């Protein structure tokens, strides 16, 4: 129940409340045509990618976006005859938010026609290649997209958002090992150009049953692993994920490295998750207070 409105929500919802600075700062630092992949906790990533892509659109692009589905446009009462550009942007943002929320509720108006839900929300037209219910699944997708960009020479960069738990899965090693293979930068693969993928560890410091530091890994920071993959240490950085400007600064810096063929890159954003693992996990007072110390 939201206020006086009753509603039915079916399925899981893995909230990212507290992690907003990571999504906002990182996506703000990339271009409209760059891509992202995300995790099961990817609602914020989806909202951010759509927001900044829409903000970069010109008038014809905005009008085309708003009018692509006349039924939804009519339902929301969206206007395309507005002379002020910012007002037209606001109309497009209303549509973006509506379609994202509709997808979470499994509605036909959603970005994936309600088939993806919260854990598989995607919008290829805006460079969002999809969230993934499989923990770590987005890492392989991001490497594939990065390899495609390298082959096509389209100068795009791919950011892969994944949680600290994902980086303990086998796919994380496979993906980062493949992305850092020497043959991409030593000329064996036709040109000296690294895979333009940025691996973004969204370390909210605890999972459903354990935390990364001092419990389920033997290292202090997951970023340390970058030094095991190539001589540049994947240009790894540890960033305050609660500071949107710090996130933006770090991402903008490493994205340019990736665009220059010096990738891949590993960033670790330390942030907080203020809610439980999912709707079925109530974050109790003791856990909450201990975490915030």
TrEMBL record:
GO MF, one example: pyruvate dehydrogenase (acetyl-transferring) activity
Oxidoreductase recorded as keyword: yes
Coiled coil regions in record: none
SUPFAM superfamilies the UniProt entry points to: Thiamin diphosphate-binding fold (THDP-binding)
Keywords linked to the UniProt accession: Oxidoreductase, Thiamine pyrophosphate
Gene Ontology BP annotations: pyruvate decarboxylation to acetyl-CoA
Residue intervals of the Dehydrogenase E1 component domain: 98-282
Cofactor: thiamine diphosphate
Entry-linked Pfam families: E1_dh
Protein name: Dehydrogenase E1 component domain-containing protein
Originating organism: marine sediment metagenome
Lineage: unclassified sequences, metagenomes, ecological metagenomes
């Amino acid at each position: 129940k939201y206020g006086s409105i009753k509603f039915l929500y079916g399925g899981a919802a893995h909230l990212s409340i507290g992690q907003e600075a990571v999504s906002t700062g990182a996506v703000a630092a990339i271009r409209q045509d760059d891509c992202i992949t995300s995790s099961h906790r990817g609602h914020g990533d989806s909202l951010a990618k759509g927001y900044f892509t829409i903000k970069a659109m010109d008038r014809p692009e905005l009008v085309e976006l708003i009018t692509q589905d006349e039924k939804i446009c009519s339902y929301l009462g969206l206007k395309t005859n507005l002379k002020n550009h910012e007002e037209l942007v606001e109309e497009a943002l209303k549509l973006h938010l509506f379609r994202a929320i509709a997808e979470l509720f499994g509605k036909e108006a959603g970005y994936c026609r309600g088939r993806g839900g919260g854990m598989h929300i995607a919008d290829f037209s805006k460079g969002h290649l999809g969230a993934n219910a499989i923990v770590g699944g987005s890492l392989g997708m991001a490497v594939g997209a990065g390899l495609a960009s390298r082959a096509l020479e389209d100068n795009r960069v791919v950011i892969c958002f994944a949680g600290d738990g994902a980086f303990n899965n086998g796919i994380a090693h496979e993906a980062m090992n493949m992305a850092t293979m020497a043959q991409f930068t030593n000329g064996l693969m036709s040109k000296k150009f690294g895979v333009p993928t940025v691996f973004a560890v969204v370390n909210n410091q605890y999972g459903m049953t354990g935390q990364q530091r001092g419990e389920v890994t033997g290292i202090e920071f997951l970023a340390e692993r970058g030094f095991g993959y190539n001589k540049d240490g994947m240009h790894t950085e540890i960033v305050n994920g609660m500071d949107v400007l710090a996130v933006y600064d770090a991402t903008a810096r490493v994205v340019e490295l990736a665009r220059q063929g010096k990738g891949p890159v590993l960033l670790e954003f330390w942030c907080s998750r203020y809610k439980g693992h999912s709707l079925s996990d109530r974050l109790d007072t003791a856990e909450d207070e201990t975490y915030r110390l």
